[in-house]
Specification:
The chain is an alpha/beta fold. The protein is built from 17 helices and 5 strands. Helix 7 (about 170-175) links the parallel strand 3 (about 150-155) and strand 4. The radius of gyration is 24 Å and the shape is elongated. Bound molecules: zinc ion. The site of zinc ion (ZN) has 8 residues, from helix 3. Zinc ion binds near residues 52, 53, 54, 61 and 67.
């Protein structure tokens, strides 16, 4: 990971680069991110930049001995900790046991969600934590000399998963760290970070990415077509992680067009058209049916905000924006609660294996009623 690999967040990149070039590196950071906005990649890019032997004005060299080791996340002065739990390959749990799996996952994509990580190590339903053993290991590693670089860097991903009674172990070394030791804590849930830790770190907030930043990243990183990138950027709510998952899984263009056409058929109440659409939706797998409904909830929410002038209509024209403009007048205070409830119910029924054909047909006729409510 280099700074150039991180989408957007230019202000933060500049601040970190400035920290290094003006010799103002802090001993401890807390990267508090809107999920999927790039904090994990940024932590690695920053760690690399700090230890690069031939760094440039704006990024690491990529060629030096340190960079070559960072390419494999195998630099001996870089220590990474993350949530883990006993899984199919390990009956015990700590970060060390899973480090190879972590390298593998992160080298595949540093825009990684916690659920993807759990899936990767096969602990989907278990409660993963950064445990006391990890904290003891951090304390041990902090006390030994660096191997080859000036700085020793600890990255703690998902610091909100620090085991409650283990976290106090770290207070002393964060408060009075050894020389040239840097801690980078990353969290997606700032409220769960204990005040005692928070107060000892420099807080850097990562805002959600804009639709344009997500769209451009999809086009550049995945060769995604412009129109599809635009549709995904709408669904991803400021998270490039979510956008990339959508790109891989959901053929989001299909979801947008199907949603738009289904809704039109509900509005004009043409049963043959409605059933053609609902059969198609019901043929999707469960996750994709849920993605369809979640996309719908986002559309209704945007429509409501636009209808009450709470947000400006989107300026850069694309098919989603065009649809929102035309459709927003049918979503208002008279029907939004009923619409949201019906969609939420449908999602929970799908999770419980409801029959898709019946469920979506029923939802279609309800939608027709809800549209009528909007101008009653
Ligand atoms: Zn280098």
């Amino acid at each position: 990971m280099f700074f150039k690999d991180i989408a957007g967040q230019e202000k933060i990149k500049n601040q970190l680069i400035d920290n290094v070039n003006k010799n103002r590196i802090s001993h401890g950071y807390l990267f508090a991110e809107h999920e999927g906005s790039g904090a994990l990649g940024m932590a690695f890019a920053y760690a690399r930049y700090i230890n690069c032997n031939d760094r440039g004005q704006n990024d690491s060299c990529g060629q030096c001995n340190a960079c070559l080791k960072f390419n494999k996340i195998a630099h001996p002065d870089l220590h990474v900790f993350f949530p883990a739990a006993p899984g199919k390959d390990n009956d015990k749990s700590n970060s060390k046991l899973y480090i190879n799996k972590f390298r593998e996952a992160i080298l595949d994509s540093h825009y990684m969600s916690l659920s993807k990580w759990y899936e990767h190590i096969g602990i989907e339903k278990k409660q993963a934590i950064i445990n006391a053993q990890d904290c003891n290991e951090i304390i041990r590693l902090a006390s030994i000399k660096t191997y080859e670089s000036k700085y020793k860097i600890f990255i703690l991903w998902m610091a909100e998963k620090l085991q409650y009674n283990a976290a106090p172990k770290l207070l002393k070394i964060i408060e009075e760290p050894y020389d040239y030791t840097i801690f980078i804590f990353i969290t997606t849930d700032l409220h769960q970070i204990p005040e005692t830790i928070l107060s000892r770190l420099q807080l850097i907030r990562f805002p959600p990415l804009s639709r344009t930043e997500i769209k451009n990243a999809l086009i550049e990183k995945c060769g995604c077509r412009k129109e599809a990138a635009s549709n995904i950027s709408f669904q991803a709510s400021g998270s490039l992680t979510e956008a990339l998952e959508l790109f891989q899984l959901n053929q989001p263009e299909e979801i947008f067009y199907l949603f738009r056409d289904w809704l039109r058929s509900c509005y004009i109440l043409k049963p043959a058209e409605i059933f053609a659409h609902t059969d198609k939706i019901a043929s999707f797998g469960r996750e994709k049916q849920k993605a369809f409904l979640e996309f719908g909830l986002k559309i209704f929410n945007q429509c409501l905000l636009m209808n009450y002038n709470a947000i400006e209509p989107v300026k850069n024209f694309d098919e989603v924006s065009d649809f929102l403009l035309k459709f927003s007048k049918f979503v208002n205070h008279k029907n939004i609660i009923a619409i949201n409830e019906s969609f939420d119910d449908a999602i929970s029924h799908i999770e419980r294996n409801a029959n898709g054909k019946i469920l979506f047909a029923d939802l279609s006729f309800k939608m027709h009623k809800f549209f009528k409510l909007s101008y009653s």
